[in-house]
Every structure is written in C-alpha cells, then in structure tokens.
Amino acid sequence: MTFTYDFKHDEDVVFFAYCQPYTYSDLVEDMNAMEKDHIKQHYVGRNTLCRTIAGNKCDYLTITAKNHPDAKSERKGVFLSARVHPGETNSSWMMKGAIDFLLS
Fold first, then answer.
1. Sign of CA dihedral 26, 32, 38, 41
2. pLDDT per residue over 46-101, tens digit each?
3. Cα 25 to chain center, whole Å?
4. Residue 74 DSSP symbol
5. Which residues contact 71 (CB under 8 A, 6 or more apart)?
C-alpha cells in the first residue's frame, strides 16, 4: 500500500497514525457509560488495579452474572489484557469490541 501527501506549508509538522487513536479520555468515557447503563451494570464490576506512572487509574473489569446462584469462587475465569505498551492503540479498539460483545 502506498499513498501521497502534499504538505501545504513549509516547516509544518504532520503526524501519520496507523490506527485511529483511542485515548485515555475515550476509555474513561466508555467505562463511565457502561457503568451508567441500567442493563450492563448488572453484569460488570469496575475496580482500580493500580495507577500508571502518569497517575491515571488502571482499572480492571469483572464481567459475570452477579446474582447467579452459583458460587463465584467455583466459576472458571478468562483474563483478557490489552494495551500493554503505549503504542498498541489497535489493541484498545479490539478490547472495546470484546467488552461490547460480552455485555451485549
């Protein structure tokens, strides 16, 4: 794949991204909306695992049937992780899709 870009101004700074950015603000908005959803809030729990070097919360989610009679400690679990490194924007979009699917 190739493309051509015409620089409009001398000394201009232009950045090219291989993926649409998924910012920390996007993450916070998505998580807040998920918690406020009257249906999804019955299946998801949000907790803080730690803080990043920048001081941002690094949350983890637990997605399960909270009121199911089976003991939670007896259930098997699956751990999903994304955006281990700062440049892995595409993994944030994949995780958003996985969470949206699980809560659909």
1. positive
2. 999 999 999 999 999 999 887 776 776 778 889 999 988 877 889 999 999 999 99
3. 10
4. G
5. none
Quick one: tokens of 10? 């001398």
Polymer length in residues for the chain:
104
Residue 17: pLDDT band with limits 50, 70, 90: confident
For the record, the structure tokens of 8 come out as 């409009």
CB 63 within 8 A of CB 103: yes
Q: Three-state SS for 58?
A: strand
* Amino acid letter for position 42: H
Strand-pair category, 44-51 with 57-63: antiparallel
- Paired tokens of 57: 């919360």
DSSP for 46-95, please give it.
Answer: EEEEEE-TTS-EEEEEEES-TT-SS-GGGS---------STT-HHHHHHH
pLDDT at position 30 is 96
Residue 56 structure tokens = 């941002």
